[in-house]
């Protein structure tokens, strides 16, 4: 059972975000099918609920075939006042100068409410005209993408000659908002392979982790900090974030009942058989799936079973418990150096409100 003794400290300096799946089809991860689920009014209801219940904003999911993340983020920013979209984008779909100009414009118009999540994993490349499938080349391209974007946000004129991208005499007409020392949108990044870690250590602002055990996250943070020194990082120190599903109920017992019921539904949908097939290409996803061999529950309330029945990404492992249980777990990640949290559970709107009212006050203080 989780330790019921809570530390007095909260997470006042942390960024607390939710997740808007940005799906074309309804029913994502058990979400009830809702008419116009991706219509502007329904998405605005989510964004305004996030504002009302104390969240900083939300990550907008991306992949080919989903609504365009930047368009959705712009629409939601126009209908809100404090909501911060973390906009997921892919090098190969975007050119760096185009992304730098678009993000700077929206950041300027919203008074500094934009952040960007750079996604380098495989997608339906051919569908949008991208041919770079080799992981090493893809991360080399991401490095150049990040370098050009940051320089355009911070320098008067940029000339850059790379293997994958180049710009000559490039200037932005509008710069990102300079708010309380924040000179430009934060560049979030994920990935667990060696190539991804080297990019994060030198070029990202925030490295996002999936829901891994505390010891594993501590090891990865130490590795990234060592790489930053070894490779000569030129920016502010790298920050760290956690993207994880949080199943929160009034009591520990109710939360575990809810989590086990959700897994039972996943098992029924999978024919009660653990997911099988080829190993995922993504190193980070395979790390999550391998956790099940170490135990069904790790660190007291990190539930690994969802990954056995089709859970992927942030849905592979869940933090489960009462608001006090989950708050204590998040503080333990913060003690390791994690200061950005992207949480979620379904039904999304209901959980925005539940966790906003029950969990966030324990984190905000």
UniProtKB/TrEMBL annotation:
<feature type="domain" description="Luciferase-like">
    <location>
        <begin position="24"/>
        <end position="340"/>
    </location>
</feature>
<keyword id="KW-0288">FMN</keyword>
<dbReference type="Pfam" id="PF00296">
    <property type="entry name" value="Bac_luciferase"/>
</dbReference>
<dbReference type="GO" id="GO:0046306">
    <property type="term" value="P:alkanesulfonate catabolic process"/>
</dbReference>
<dbReference type="GO" id="GO:0008726">
    <property type="term" value="F:alkanesulfonate monooxygenase activity"/>
</dbReference>
<keyword id="KW-0503">Monooxygenase</keyword>
<dbReference type="InterPro" id="IPR050172">
    <property type="entry name" value="SsuD_RutA_monooxygenase"/>
</dbReference>
<protein>
    <submittedName>
        <fullName>LLM class flavin-dependent oxidoreductase</fullName>
    </submittedName>
</protein>
<dbReference type="InterPro" id="IPR011251">
    <property type="entry name" value="Luciferase-like_dom"/>
</dbReference>
<keyword id="KW-0560">Oxidoreductase</keyword>
<keyword id="KW-0285">Flavoprotein</keyword>
<dbReference type="InterPro" id="IPR036661">
    <property type="entry name" value="Luciferase-like_sf"/>
</dbReference>
């Amino acid at each position: 059972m989780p330790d019921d003794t809570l530390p007095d400290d909260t997470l006042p300096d942390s960024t607390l975000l939710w997740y808007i799946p940005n799906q074309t089809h309804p029913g994502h991860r058990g979400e009830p099918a809702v008419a116009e689920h991706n219509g502007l009014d329904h998405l605005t209801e989510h964004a305004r609920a996030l504002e009302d219940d104390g969240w900083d904003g939300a990550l907008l999911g991306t992949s080919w075939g989903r609504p365009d993340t930047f368009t959705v983020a712009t629409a939601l920013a126009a209908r809100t006042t404090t909501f911060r979209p973390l906009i997921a984008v892919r090098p190969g779909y975007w050119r760096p100068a185009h992304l730098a100009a678009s993000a700077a414009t929206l950041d300027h118009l919203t008074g500094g409410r934009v952040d960007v999540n750079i996604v380098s994993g495989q997608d339906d490349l051919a569908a949008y005209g991208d041919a770079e499938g080799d992981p090493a080349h893809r991360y080399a391209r991401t490095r150049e993408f990040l370098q050009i974007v940051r320089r355009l946000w911070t320098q008067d004129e940029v000339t850059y000659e790379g293997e994958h991208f180049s710009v000559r005499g490039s200037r932005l007409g509008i710069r990102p908002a300079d708010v309380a020392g924040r000179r430009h949108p934060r560049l979030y990044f994920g990935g667990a392979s060696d190539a991804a870690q080297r990019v994060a250590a030198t070029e990202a602002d925030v490295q996002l982790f999936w829901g891994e055990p505390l010891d594993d996250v501590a090891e990865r943070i130490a590795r990234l900090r060592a790489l930053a020194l070894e490779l000569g990082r030129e920016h502010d120190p790298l920050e760290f974030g956690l993207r994880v599903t949080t199943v929160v109920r009034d009591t520990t017992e109710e939360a575990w009942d809810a989590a086990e019921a959700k897994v039972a539904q996943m098992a029924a949908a999978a024919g009660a058989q653990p997911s099988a097939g080829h190993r995922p290409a993504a190193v980070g996803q395979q790390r999550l799936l391998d956790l099940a061999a170490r135990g069904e529950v790790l660190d007291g309330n990190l539930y690994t079973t969802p990954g056995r029945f089709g859970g992927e990404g942030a849905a592979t492992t869940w933090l489960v418990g009462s608001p006090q249980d989950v708050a204590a777990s998040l503080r333990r990640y913060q003690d390791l150096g994690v200061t950005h949290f992207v949480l979620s559970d379904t039904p999304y709107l209901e959980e925005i409100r539940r966790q906003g009212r029950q969990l966030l006050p324990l984190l905000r203080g």
